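To the wet lab folks,

You asked to see what we're planning to order before we commit. Fair enough. Below is the target structure as tokens, and below that is the sequence we designed to fit it. If anything looks off to you, flag it before the synthesis order goes out.
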């Protein structure tokens, strides 16, 4: 039996959603006019998109319908959910172009004001889910760390983190992103902490590990001085078994000192497979085979595939802003009215045996 997230998970601003605060104005006008004219067409609304993708945000969209469909009666909200027949796919389902992911059947005046909101839920979360799955597929059995929080508004973190989790990301960076499945944010010894220790990566890492090694896998950024091999070795020696991994994050405008004698045979800037190999070889030679290597900085599916094709000894990829790029827009169409086909030219009801009734 497949399950869905409960509506309470999403902490929706129910009153504002009911009042159309987040809705395109013309949907609010539509609801108002239908109610004032006492017009209650029973419609079938069909939601779809035009890409091969993964479905995200569907439980949030259902929560919007459950809690916010209805009408005002003597200033009180009368819920409309029990008057609707809603059918939907599930979080993480693969979806095809034009395939319906959600249908809503019932009095259009009960839910006309919610179209903007439920479409936005599935559009955003499906975009993140599709992008995460693409980088996860590129990385094979390597771990993906979901690091785009700083690249977007904080309000989107919670649902984005859930979408990334469903799509296969092994870790997220904030408590908000992990909250819907009861996880916690993970991270590394950051550049800011190293700077606070006067640029001494070892000192910062030693104190960090002393405090937090029992709570997390301690991973240390080792590019603060642009000498990743030396810094990785120093950190590994200082922390011993308390060190889980080192993270390479060299700026795309810099060449790490370890590569200065090899210029000309490959593109040496930023984090590249040769630098990763140098760090791995140095750690292994010094007896630190247990130390993992995490890479970050401008990674997307194409860059990960390139690293994997070259056999770069990466254990985990930290991926940020690329996971928020692109679009995965959804459309909602009325396709039947009062039992008869009625849709804009070019659209029609698409039958689907995959849609399950929503209780």
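Sequence we intend to order:
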């Amino acid at each position: 039996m497949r399950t869905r997230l409960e509506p309470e998970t999403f902490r929706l601003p129910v009153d504002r959603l009911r009042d159309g605060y987040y809705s395109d104005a013309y949907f609010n006008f539509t609801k108002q006019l239908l109610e004032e004219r006492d017009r209650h067409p029973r419609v079938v609304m069909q939601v779809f998109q035009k890409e091969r993708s993964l479905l995200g945000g569907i439980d949030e969209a259902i929560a919007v319908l459950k809690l916010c469909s209805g009408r005002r009666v003597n200033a009180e909200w009368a819920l409309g959910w029990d008057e609707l027949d809603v059918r939907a796919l599930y979080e993480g389902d693969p979806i095809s172009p034009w395939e319906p992911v959600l249908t809503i059947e019932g009095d259009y005046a009960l839910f006309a004001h919610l179209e903007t909101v439920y479409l936005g839920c599935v559009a955003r979360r499906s975009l993140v889910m599709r992008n995460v799955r693409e980088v996860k597929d590129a990385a094979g059995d390597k771990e993906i760390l979901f690091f785009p929080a700083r690249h977007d508004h904080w309000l989107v973190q919670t649902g984005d983190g859930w979408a990334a989790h469903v799509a296969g990301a092994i870790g997220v960076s904030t408590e908000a992103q992990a909250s819907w499945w009861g996880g916690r944010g993970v991270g590394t010894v950051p550049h800011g902490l190293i700077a606070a220790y006067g640029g001494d990566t070892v000192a910062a890492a030693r104190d960090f590990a002393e405090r937090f090694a029992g709570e997390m896998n301690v991973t240390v950024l080792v590019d603060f001085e642009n000498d990743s091999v030396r810094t990785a070795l120093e950190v590994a020696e200082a922390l011993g078994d308390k060190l889980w991994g080192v993270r390479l994050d060299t700026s795309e405008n810099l060449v790490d000192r370890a590569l200065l004698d090899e210029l000309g045979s490959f593109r040496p800037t930023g984090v590249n497979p040769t630098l990763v190999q140098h760090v791995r070889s140095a750690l292994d030679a010094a007896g630190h085979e247990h130390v993992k290597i995490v890479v970050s900085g401008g990674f997307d599916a194409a860059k990960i595939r390139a690293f994997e094709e070259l056999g770069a000894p990466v254990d985990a990829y930290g991926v940020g802003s690329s996971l928020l790029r692109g679009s995965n827009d959804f459309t909602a169409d009325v396709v039947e009215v009062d039992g008869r086909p009625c849709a804009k030219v070019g659209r029609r009801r698409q039958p689907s045996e995959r849609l399950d009734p929503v209780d």
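Structural context that might help your review: Residues 115-139 form the longest helix (25 residues). DSSP finds eleven helices and 16 strands in the chain.

Thanks,
Computational group
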